[in-house]
Amino acid sequence: YAQFCPPFYLTGREINDYGNVAYIRRLTLTGRQGSEVGYIAVYFQTDYLKKLLLRNQPEAGSVYYLINSRESIVASTDEELSGIYHIDYEDIPDYISAKEEYEQVVLSGGRLYAAYNNISNTDWRLLSFIPAESIYLKEQGRIVRQFGFLLLLFVATVTMELLFSRNISTRLIRVAERMRPGPGAPLTTIPEERTDDEIGQLVHTYNQMVERISALVESERETADKLKVSEVNALQSQINPHFLYNMLDMINWQA
């Protein structure tokens, strides 16, 4: 035998000293029927149960409440809504067929998602009612937030792409201008950037090419200078015997 005692069952002293509700159970000797040895009463505040129910963070217009077999509301997140969405204890399984799972019902002229659960070792049942409209509004809000986030992400992506493309095109134009010297101007190297991307590799390869061309031009210049010296030396070697012969012939003629 057990009984839930709402506030109107208790005295003022019990409510002030212990709690505004109580759960009373008869104690008997094990194995002996009718051997009453006393009663145990557990007092507590309904505010504590209400806080437990509010942990589920119900949606706007929803209500969670506990009801016992005597049709007494043990605790509720909203007393007014628990009265509006009241279902008799015995009719709950017939009205809400899916135990512990939400299903859509029509109650007090409104469409609701309802579920119930039996509390073990008690005659209590926990009922949950959530207006379908609040679910739809929540889903719409979530979709709008997701759409806004995706739109913001798209704008940020496009902006980054434009900035990246502009940076790449600016660097390419600068490199192309350095690769195109004026008429008669020698090729010069380009200051290398501290990047390992394609443009950085292009600048590095171009600088290597310019250094090789400069080395080849310098080698050709040195080879040309040596060739000229060799030609002069060869010409002098050809002129000197003729000059000596002519001098000797002139001396001979004078003599």
Given as residue ranges, the uncertain stretches (5+ residues, pLDDT < 50) are none
The end-to-end span amounts to 168 Å
Morphology call? rod-shaped
**Helix content estimate:** 40-55%
Q: Number of DSSP strands? A: 8
**Largest sheet, spatial ordering of strands:** 5-4-8-7-6
- Order of helix and strand elements from N to C terminus: EHEEHEEHHEEEHH
The helix count comes to 6
**Residue share in β-strands:** 15-25%
Q: From the alpha carbons, calculate the radius of gyration and give it in angstroms.
A: 51 Å
Largest sheet: 5 strands, antiparallel
Mean of the pLDDT scores? 81
Look at the helices and sheets and give the structural class.
alpha+beta
Quick summary of this structure?
The chain is of the alpha+beta class. It has helices at 12-17, 46-54, 79-84, 92-95, 132-179, 198-254, and strands at 2-5, 21-28, 36-44, 63-67, 73-76, 103-107, 110-118, 125-131.
Question: Care to describe what's here?
Answer:
51% of the residues lie in helices and 20% in strands. It has helices at 12-17, 46-54, 79-84, 92-95, 132-179, 198-254, and strands spanning 2-5, 21-28, 36-44, 63-67, 73-76, 103-107, 110-118, 125-131. Strands 5-4-8-7-6 form a 5-stranded antiparallel sheet. Strands 1-2-3 form a 3-stranded antiparallel sheet, with no helix packed on it. The longest helix has 57 residues, at 198-254. The chain is rod-shaped and about 175 Å long. The model has no long low-confidence stretch (mean pLDDT 81).
